[in-house]
Predict the 3D structure of the following.
Amino acid sequence: MSITTPTFIVDEAQIISNLKTLADIRKQSGCKVLYAMKALPCSRVLEIVKPFVDGFAVSSLFEAQLAQEVLAGQGDVHLTTPALIAEELYELTTLCTHINFNSLSHHERYAPIVETQAAIGLRINPKLSFVADDRFNPCRRYSKLGVDIDALWQANQIEQVTGLHFHTVFSATDFTPLIQTVEKIRRYFGNSLEKLKWINLGGGYLFHSIADYQPFIDLVIQLRRELKVDIYIELGNGIVGNAAQLNATVIDCFESDGKTVAILDTSINHNPEVFEYQRSPHVLEHDVNGRYSMILAGGTCLAGDIFGEYRFKQPLQLGDKITFAKVGAYTLIKANRFNGHNLPNVYLKRADGELELLKHYTYQDYQQQWSSATTSNAGQPILTSQNMTNFK
Ligand SMILES: Cc1ncc(COP(=O)(O)O)c(C=O)c1O
């Protein structure tokens, strides 16, 4: 089969290897593992992950719907979001086993509606910052993520929920933040924690890049023994982050102010976090000692559509292939068709080595997204001068 770029290739064997590591940790510690599907919600990926986990962590109605389509009741669905919408609550309770409120006001307003259907938890903000970049820091000043730990302590509301949730780190490779956070929560809430049924330690830990899991295992065993609660983790990046690559082809090369620019047939459309966070993705062909330095750029009209400056053994030529590695998490899910550039073909490199095409997008998909003719009530005047006032 001939493969045209750009392609996004998911590596089943790598996902399974990550999941086997987690299965071992789960066995040794007794913790429950959820897949945070926001990282990469391809249904095929969800099917691969499903046998290894206790369920999925979701952040919206659509994610909850997809989660249940795959799980079909065979696992937990934990919802955590600041974006709870009253109109969606009923449906969410039919899909989610656990709902974590993001604020005391949402808890007060919505707990009476959902508590007979789903287990109720609170996301708390432990106010311990471990992430230098505030754009990733859930505990940043004026955070919108979770109930301020001091406010919760003062409100004395912890006994009105069955679970606590926190998520405070990003791509962490040691467990010090987790241990310190748990210590702080125990100091604040003491024996009240024994009345809980579960504590969700969130995601953000790159288990596949951590050599020593023992501190995590010891922590979970201790919490389970002393508090008699279920302990959950909900990982995205730690399950799929290192398990996909984006392949591209050089379509133009030229000099600009003394540097060589190589234009690719992909762009930051396919990896928006490169632009959002100004980070350069890992390029397999890059060689630190390479003689030739080149700027890898995407093909959209955005001046900053640039992946970074990399070094190569030989100068890049038209038709050369470039491989962005470890782009499994938060890449495809954020991809867009800006400039009318198509989304990449999505393949699964199966554990048996075969490449399986999961998705191929066409002009019809682009047209469907933007043409109002495909909306069933298009052309109907739903905005009258009366109801327009709602939008002012
Ligand atoms: C509440 C929550 N849980 C879990 C995750 C998954 O984090 P990661 O993919 O870094 O493991 C996130 C990521 O944003 C999150 O916001």
In short: The two ends are 54 Å apart (CA to CA).
